[in-house]
């Protein structure tokens, strides 16, 4: 895919800055925009979290899914918030400034909202996850109930008061929507990029290996969901989103600092979710 002048120029600026400030071995391992986004140790702590080893039985996997489905759902909301920032989703339509960013985010929405399944049908990754839970025997009632309430016009904050929602999941969703409701485009895109698309492949790979040993009739759909996310995010979505963040922040150090803060907050929210869920899994 060919790049626009704005993205190409920003890439050159980032590459020049990174190669002069970062060790050569890091330049070889990371995308050039990483040298402007400061994640501290948050990403490393998330990838090395003990929860991946704790999810070591079908019963624990079902408990994990019942809490994680909320992160899958609010991912879609975060994605739509990014789309609102980068493309026109109102009527009458007007063109947004960055045509390539518009194209890239709409490609991601296509993949996440209406991916093609092995049988030739289409579904969002949220719907695929929900179906995977049903096949595995995990409880979907709380998630489905909130969706129905929202469709009926109930405010999200009120719908999330349902006591059947895991506490850690409710807190995670609230943190995600605090970023969404900020209305800050570079913060929202950075949280989506570094809190989701960039790190998800490294998290999910650890589950795929274990699922390969489980009954494919029960766990096959869930494994397909994980593999699709790894494929899309690692090979395309992650790099694309990092380029968009670089373009949005440009040479503005304040925007880079704010984008870094949003990225760290998103990663720390996931760590908090994993911490609480890990405590619960040890009792199973």
Q: Can you characterise this structure?
A:
The protein is mostly helical. Helices cover 73% and strands 1% of the residues. The chain has 14 helices and two strands, in the order ααααααββαααααααα. Strands 1-2 form a two-stranded antiparallel ribbon. α1 crosses α13, α5 runs antiparallel to α11 and α12 runs antiparallel to α13. It is globular and about 50 Å long.
Q: Could you outline the blueprint of secondary structure elements for this entry?
A:
Layout: H1 5-21, H2 24-29, H3 42-47, H4 51-54, H5 58-86, H6 99-113, E1 115-116, E2 122-123, H7 125-136, H8 141-151, H9 156-159, H10 167-180, H11 185-197, H12 200-211, H13 216-249, H14 253-281
Antiparallel strand pairs: 1-2
Notable characteristics:
two-stranded antiparallel sheet; 284 residues; mainly alpha; disordered N terminus; 2 strands
Span between N and C termini? 48 Å
Proportion of residues in helical segments? over 70%
Low-confidence stretches: 1-35
Radius of gyration: 19 Å
Number of strands: 2
Strand content is under 5%
| Helical run tally | 14
């Amino acid at each position: 895919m060919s790049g626009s002048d704005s993205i190409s120029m920003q890439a050159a600026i980032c590459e020049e800055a990174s190669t002069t400030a970062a060790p050569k071995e890091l330049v070889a391992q990371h995308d050039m925009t990483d040298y402007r986004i400061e994640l501290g140790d948050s990403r490393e702590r998330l990838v090395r979290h003990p929860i991946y080893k704790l999810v070591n039985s079908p019963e624990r996997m079902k408990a994990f899914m019942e809490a994680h489905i909320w992160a899958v759902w609010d991912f879609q909301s975060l994605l739509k918030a990014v789309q609102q920032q980068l493309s026109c989703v109102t009527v009458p339509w007007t063109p947004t400034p960055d045509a390539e960013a518009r194209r890239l985010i709409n490609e991601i929405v296509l993949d996440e909202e209406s991916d093609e399944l092995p049988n030739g049908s289409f579904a969002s990754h949220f719907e695929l996850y929900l179906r995977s839970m049903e096949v595995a025997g995990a409880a979907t009632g709380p998630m489905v109930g909130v969706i129905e309430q929202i469709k009926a016009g109930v405010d999200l904050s009120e719908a999330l008061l349902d006591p059947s929602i895991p506490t850690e999941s409710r807190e995670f969703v609230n943190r995600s929507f605090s970023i969404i409701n900020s209305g800050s485009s570079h913060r929202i895109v950075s949280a989506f990029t570094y809190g989701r698309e960039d790190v998800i492949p490294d998290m999910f790979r650890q589950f795929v290996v274990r699922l390969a040993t489980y009954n494919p009739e029960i766990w096959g759909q869930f494994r397909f969901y994980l593999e699709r996310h790894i494929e899309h995010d690692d090979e395309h979505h992650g790099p694309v989103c990092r380029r968009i963040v670089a373009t949005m922040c440009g040479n503005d150090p304040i925007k880079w600092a704010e984008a870094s803060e949003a990225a760290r907050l998103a990663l720390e929210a996931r760590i908090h979710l994993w911490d609480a869920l890990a405590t619960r899994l040890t009792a199973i």
